[in-house]
Amino acid sequence: MADGDEAAAPGGAERLAAVCGHLEEIRADLRSGPGGDEDPVEQVLAAVQDGGDLAGTLAVLHAVLQADGDPQGLDGYTDHAGGIRGLQPAGISTTRAEPIYVCPAGRCARYWWPQPVVPVPKCAISSTPLRRERL
Ligand SMILES: [Zn+2]
């Protein structure tokens, strides 16, 4: 693994969004993998809280998930088909002022479109509901 390249690579916010939105899935996958423990994702959460080496811990988590048999690693966890690439997904009209929910901590690239019967999800990193914004 090329640590220097990973740290400089774009996508930290997107990878953190995967953790934010899929923490329990990631924990379950880590527990069922060969390593059998959640430490890699706990290290990411600790880095967020303490201002530690976030890019480094995300790279380790990504590599562990890949080693567990998921070639997409962390990039495979996304709320949005086709990947998470900013706040203007192709094909969605934003001519109306549509509310959108974003990460309350402002640390990750997660976003969520309101759905009528679905409660607003919580950010797994800050344990608070996503924050409502307008585009
Ligand atoms: Zn978040």
Q: Whole-number radius of gyration?
A: 15 Å
Low-confidence stretches: 1-9, 81-88
**Bound ligands, named by name, code or SMILES:** zinc ion
Distance between the termini: 38 Å
Beta fraction: 5-15%
Number of helices: 4
Give structural notes.
This protein has 135 residues and is mainly alpha-helical. The protein has a domain at 3-76. 39% of the residues lie in helices and 7% in strands. The protein has four helices and three strands. The protein has helices spanning 3-8, 12-32, 39-50, 54-67, and strands spanning 99-102, 111-112, 131-134. It has a three-stranded antiparallel sheet with strand order 2-1-3, with no helix packed on it. The radius of gyration is 15 Å and the shape is globular. Mean pLDDT is 80; it is low at 1-9 and 81-88. The structure holds zinc ion. Zinc ion binds at residues 20, 103, 105, 107-108, 110, 123, 125.
What's the gist of this structure?
The protein is mostly helical.
Topology:
Blueprint (H helix, E strand, L loop, with lengths): L2 H6 L3 H21 L6 H12 L3 H14 L31 E4 L8 E2 L18 E4 L1
Antiparallel strand pairs: 1-2, 1-3
The structure holds zinc ion.
Zinc ion binds next to loops.
